[in-house]
User: Fold these one by one.
Assistant:
Number 1:
Amino acid sequence: MATDETGYEPADIEPEWRQRWAERERYEADPSEEDKTFITVPYPYPSGGMHIGHARTYTVPDVYARYRRQQGDNVLFPIGWHVTGTPIIGAVERLKKGEEEQLSVLRDTYNVPEDTLEDLETPMGYARHFIEEHYKAGMKQLGLSIDWRREFTTEDERYEKFITWQYETLKDRGLLEKGLHPVNYCTNEEQPVTTHDLLEGEDEEFQEYTLVKFSAEEDGEEVVYPMATLRPETVRGVTNAYVDPEATYVRATVDGETWIVSEDAAEKFELQARDVEIHERIDGADLVGRRVDNPVTGDDILVLPADFVDVDNATGVVMSVPAHSPDDYVALQEAKERADDLTEYGLDPEAVRAIEPVPILSVEGYGEIPARDAVEEYGIEGQDDPALDEATHELYNAEFHGGELNDDYGDFAGAVIEDVRDELKEYYQSQGDFDAMYDFAAEVICRCGGEVEVAEQDTWFLRYNDEEWTAKVERAIENLDAIPENTRQQYYNTVDWLEEWPCIRNYGLGTPLPWDPEFIIEPLSDSTVYMAYYTIAHRLQDVPLEELDREFFDALFYGEDAVDDPDPTALELREEWSYWYPVDYRCSAEDLINNHLTFFLYHHAELFDEDEWPQGITGMGMGLLEGQKMSSSKGHVVLPDEAIGEYGADTVRFFLLNSSEPWQDFDWRADEVGSTHDQLARFWTRAEELIDGEEGDRDELQDIDRWLLAKLQETVEAVTDSLERFETRTASQEAFYRFEEQLRWYRRRADLDRPGARWTLRHVLETRLRLLAPFVPFMANELHERLTGTPAEDAPWPEPEAEFRDESAVASEALVEDLHEDVADILEVTGEDPETIRVYVAADWKREVFAAVREAGTNVGAVMSEAMSNPDLREKGDAVNDLAQELVEFARGRDDDELATLADLDERAVYEDAADFLAREHDADVEVYAEDGDPEDPAGKADQAVPFRPAIHVE
């Protein structure tokens, strides 16, 4: 445990508070007369241990929960455990097989004792270990203010009854259907999988490729060479094709046609519900030199060899459009350069060199061959050039949004691609020239180790594209407090592309599909409205399992009129559910917007009334460790118990909360965490000194005390505003670091032994401890209780105190700070060690010009008109004009109240009061003069004075 010579010992403080919270059941929340706040976070999936990235995810909502409690709310912050699906089963199987990588993760990364491994050899034994020994223990160590009565797992029988109710309801409403649907499919487990089941490629979404059916007559039959593209409009620009000469291809009958595709592609077509029969395997080299006909133009094109062809992607036969693809342009140029070497494949070098790009559209900013222009602009020298991807992306984007098809496209000629791509694809598909397939652009691997492909399965799916359902969700998004605001559009975008969602698995943990129990409801589909279950989870334990039927939950969620004979217990539980609902805020990773979080909105919008829909969602960023992505499998993680053991829970919390805003990525760096600990230790030491010292006297405040108290009110306001928006970094920075800057200045300016200063510092400490309680609850509660007799969390959230608002004190001290900095800058530049510092305050006529600025605003012409109405100013002519421009710049960005406060200040008196301080700081006599008061001015500096920026002379 990190300690500090000052005596800050987290290990002495934190366990006592954990025990105290547990014994007093401090965070157990029941309905009351108070306003409520219901905040949730995704329940963890305990297929491994909790790491520091998880800690940040759960600590952010804890800060908000603690803040709302101090605001007087009755706060519910629950947690459960998500075990649905196959990742835990896969982990258990790998453990039982003795796979070294799995054993290493368990032993070395998550410190599972050797004699405990056997306990992990059942799915729920495995899950329970990580729930109890990692997640739950870690959450308690962090001091998360969770109501532990309400925890459950998705394998609990009563939870399954709740999910059964949900899916029977959706089915009865026509929002579940059965039919063929493309799904992510594990070829090892032979069942659909979702994002949560993936080891690699979690961010990959399968795409629908257009297959352009090039063909040739071979041995008296027509043979199709399907080539995949995401740009079907470029079909008229195809100049050649590529195959991998080292790969294996097949001749196969696919839905009654003879196709030439890679061996991998044939397997994919079988998965996608096509009738496939393989007749022979063919070496890729045997395909080189063949000519195939373009189905749209009738032109024949040459098949060339290329080692960049990925036969595991799409069909393994690649079409080339060098006029509009920088990749293809570079590949063609390289093929021409090595044309003589291609004779080994029986190719005529001149035939290769004769291939030229064929333009099919025009786009602003590019010439006849756009790909060539892009390659030349980026200076691309080969296919390995990293700039090639950027050039390709930029050209594709420009062509999609602005590319106009040429006259060869007939009815589509002159159209912009984005307006006609789908129509063009459908047209050629109807002519039999195009087909389609699904595939990933990159490798996707299941947690079990199997390859994931796209398969069309006869499955049950949720009809997320239902118009009425979609309309409700869009209304929910419109009314949602989306934090940050820019995430709102991501929800709309997700709704736009969502179609049907397969919601079942062949096996795994989870709730059986009620009407077809051979299937299991998949992980993303059983985790949409479990927040409602939290509200009554602890009380359902007293309800006999057999009573938890459809009518019970209908009565619970829809009221006594929903069923003929409502269960009294259900109606009683309805009161608790109604009290807590809706969910006020859900904190979850932003990368879940395109599935879980949008599904969360869908199911709430359908199953509950509008006033019960989620109120807000706060997006969460990802965690890095020393600049690199965390990885449990590689052991590149920090475990919370280890971090807490070294630094203390408050340090861990504080670093996670103020290193970035919740929706930004954070980077756990040991040296910075250590620095955070040291800063908290210094805070602790100063606090102890104040607590142990004299109380002071409120009646003996001086101007500098009033300034600090005024800055405190600004801090209270800033922290409160930030926490209302979940800006934990801004809030913690304001409460701690930025106010420490004010304190550093105060300690330089004030006699800290004065009774007024002692009272001020103790009052400031008491307020700051309440502001910091959500962030560092152990330290804040301990110190606040020592200071006042009450833990900080039991004291109300601070509100700005009107009696301590003092704009004049703030403005005056800002002038002193500015003057101090100006003097320091002069001394640094000149290198002088002055005996005397003379300060000249602007003449009264210059204040009159400032008055004109206040009256006329920040338009120089208007200011001059106002100033020239004063005969005395009119006589000064150009001097007034020069000063007016300077003061207009000064006034910009300052509101009327601030300018009024400055106008009322006696600027000379402010500097005179600070003269002794400035003399101490700079070890020199300080003399303050008025510019127009016959000052001592040996260097002729006085006339350079401007209101609120005095002239300075040092000697």
Number 2:
Amino acid sequence: MAESDDTTGEMSEGLQVELFHPESDREPGDTNIQRFGFDIHPVVFPVALVVIALFIAVTVLLGDQAASMYTALFNFIGENFGWFYLLAVNIFIVVLLFFAFSKFGKIKIGGVEAEKEFSDFSWMAMLFSAGMGIGLMFFSVSEPLYYFQNVPGFFGAEAGTGAAASAAMAQTFFHWGFHPWAVYGLVGLGLAFFSFNRGLPLTFRSIFWPLLGDRIYGWPGHIIDLVTVFATLFGLATSLGLGVAQVNQGLSYVGGDLLGLVSIPTNSLVQVLLIAGITGIATLSVAAGLDGGVKRLSTINLYLMFALLGFLLIVGPTVYILGAWVEGLGVYFNNILALGFFRGTLAPGGSTVTAWTVFYWGWWIAWSPFVGMFIARISKGRTIRQFVMGVLVLPAMFSTIWLSTFGGAALFNSLQGNGAALATYNELGQTVAMFAMLEQFPLGAISGILATLLVITFFVTSSDSGSLVVDHLTSGGKHDVPRAQRIFWAVTEGAVAAILLYGGGLTALQTAAITTGLPFAVILCLMCYTVYLGLSNEYEILESEEFAETIEELTDRENVDVVTAGDEMVTDVREGDDAASSD
């Protein structure tokens, strides 16, 4: 999370409080239990722990039977509800664009008096950082190579050809481009609006204030936050499981095959030990606080990410990578609408949709509370239009550059090189794909070590930031959570990932993510309506006579500047000469 959470959702002292905040005597965490260094919600915290413990117990006790059950459940959801995932995510894109380009686009997050906490450059940099993660490290090479050999039915190209490579890049862009960021954008917008503009607790229950009112503090709100906790925890556990598998493979491949120093076995036991060690680092990061821990590690993350990206662009097939990026974008943009709705029901190719697209959409939805809260935290003071265009376009395009660099280099090796990266991928699996590709270019051992370090730092910052999100949810939306409680959730997240990885492998983690993503997708669909209601109410107040009279009184004062959009709606109220220009 960026800098400090102390101001998240706080009530501004001015127009926003007087005219826009709901009349309620409830405060975040006003019924919490405070004991043993914890500050917990009396329902969400204990119920979440019990359900998580039951899920883990079933996984461990049933063993192979649980793994088979998870596989069957994964396939059942993909085959029977895949259409719903596809439809929902497309709806999210349409809704976000409507908010941006309708009359609501001029509304400012935090109200007319809100100021930006971060410069545009810092905001964009943090969006890029949020767009990168363990998943991109894990799939940026393996996914294009998979499609290169198993061309998605939508494209109908011949495997192993240039047309297959073009289809592979477009399909990968589709999975990591605008659609996932529409999920994140909707969640971030909802959280930011109801927290900053309405002064409500920073939890998902607050988004349903237009429908539930004070009932968000009762069982309807408890259920919403519980589903959010499960989605966040299992979405994060999936990322940690994928990440530790790649760390294990990276250490083994670099230490043994490349450097010839030590051969580290690749198995569940080693991965559990790695999770324990890396979770320990995350715990120290939590104890150090946001400025001393997460912020410092996030900065290191950013430097490592650009170092690895720049290194491969220089030593790799630079012109080929840039050409693959442009060509991949062309195919992606040309087919984005059809890809977004392709289920494979009327034409062959549905297996790719079930195994990849449905899993990704479920994963993005499960991961969205974490990323959405991060985006909400850094976006105060921006208009809805600025927010949507920034969240949808900037990180999505940066992700395509990353994917083109690593996936394009692997495809170059397959089409014009010795094909070693593809051969190693087929022999050892997707966890080694990144390292097998880096080995084909100069200083492969050094870049392999850098890639492993990057996965570890992503692991640590994801665990730390994820624990903050779960803390908010299980403390009734309070912003200042005791250190012991954050440490507890950091350890719990690592334990869940370790136990599920050991007991049921990645299948258990993926099933947990896609299963919790299903009910949460329903919540997000309802969120489209509640955010619309909230923005409509905001717009009505901005156009009301009461608001106009208040603005007229402010205008008569000295050193107060009132900015309007097209002489119609007030968009900014500032003291002195600092009035920002309107949209």
Number 3:
Amino acid sequence: MSSDTLIDANWLDYSLVAIYFGFVLGIGVMARRSVSDSIDFFLSGRSLPAWVTGLAFISANLGAVEIMGMSANGAQLGLPTFHYFWVGAVPAMLFLGVVMMPFYYGSKVRSVPEFMFRRFGTGAHLVNAISFAVAQLLIAGVNLALLAGIVRALLGWPIWVSLIVAGAVVLSYITLGGLSAAIYNEVLQFFVIVASLLPLTLIGLNRVGGWDGLTDKISAASAGASSASDAPPAAQQLNAWPGQALSGFDSPILSVVGIVFGLGFVLSFGYWTTNFVEVQRAMASDSISAARKTPIIGAFPKMFVPFIVIVPGMVSAVLVAEMIELKDGGTPTGGASGDVTYNDALLLLMRDVLPNGLLGLAIAGLLAAFMAGMAANISAFNTVFSYDLWQRYIRKDHSDDYYLRIGRLATVGATVIAIFTAQIALGYDNVMNYLQTLFGFFNAPLFATFILGMFWKRMTPTAGWVGLVAGTLSAIAVDRTAAAGVFELSGQGVAFLAASVAFVVDIVLSVVVSLVTKPKPAEELRGLVYSETPREDRTDPHEASYPWYRRTAPLAGIALAMVIVLNFAF
């Protein structure tokens, strides 16, 4: 292996990566032909079938953050990481499909902030649009930092060169084809990611002697750990519940409450039901029935993603020399960004167990994941920037061509800014910690405002923006108080606590402010509030004639039953 690269790839691996890049750019060029106006560019002309948007829904979330962050968590914490999927994703995805998607799709809004504008007016809309835009630039930076880490590991380039090259590739296909290019690439990326991570998981498990061998090795490492190690005890790593390693609470009861309320309700519902990156994929579908089924179809593969993402992280922690040293409290060198961190778990496992050829496929899969995540952030950012900020507050009543041009310029600007925000992400040894913090700041208060406004018609426009601002500030206050050392929680406990505080503060203030300010007249709330929206506006008239496996409710019921079984099994 050469001294300046982490992974020893050969011509076969590089050829596979080059073929993959050819496909990605080809999809961008082909999608360009179908972009004639801004709805085509930003929402794919609302023309895609449910299976395409369903796979894109998962792939948009299966970015660098998910793959590197979850494998890092797997290496560090073990099985409690499964909660991000079975408690922290699937239930909220089903709720989005069954309850909330009819409001988004039926109201014909082009973004989540636009829905906020119709429900609460300018104040809440402006706060939401700005905070969402900032969050996307920060999260795109996370994806870009990890993408550049791969390029550096593969080619030995300096990190800043890797950042620019990685950004340029993503930029080229979104600028060409808009959301259609992003979505069709996400479907391709989903299959590439699974095809690359499944062999890694199977070969890795085989090397450690299967599941029993893995559990034995984790128990042995825990029993012989040095005093410098901060790894949780083996019993906590090998059981998902009560999950103290993840929540940071010593008490099993508080840990379960923290995971179910903090992660399973506030962070999870806040992310999946109000995050325009995800919702945008469902909005691109061709009917209200397809829009509702998008997150439900996505829930089925989502349940099984932990087995190809978290398990390799756990294998890496007992098989890779550098990871064993790191987990035992050492500081090994030779990671993607210098010293080895938990974020390197997957890369180092690929280096140690994959033969050439499979290594090229795995690298293509990781590049696919990072580009899917970053493209999702940037395609959501350009929509919100163009429609919700530029068109509404800066230049109204211009031609459609003008806003299409602004969208493409916003894409370029976002990519350049992401190169700088990537530097922040490089300062975290586990990107999941950084990400959960961002979600607590931006998504938890938004979900509180959203859910109260959707089910309580008395909630007023003033309460909308006051709750959002107060919730965000309270989450930041909790995070900064913990950073100053006033209190301590391990794992991602601080992020869960900040999100929970933001949610409660937002709800309480929104109720108080609503009771002393004037609500909107009921006739203006049709399509925006549950009680004021007739059933026929919320359902597809054709759905009753479909076979059961194409209907929303039966599919959601099956998914829910499966995820309950998985929670009990592990």
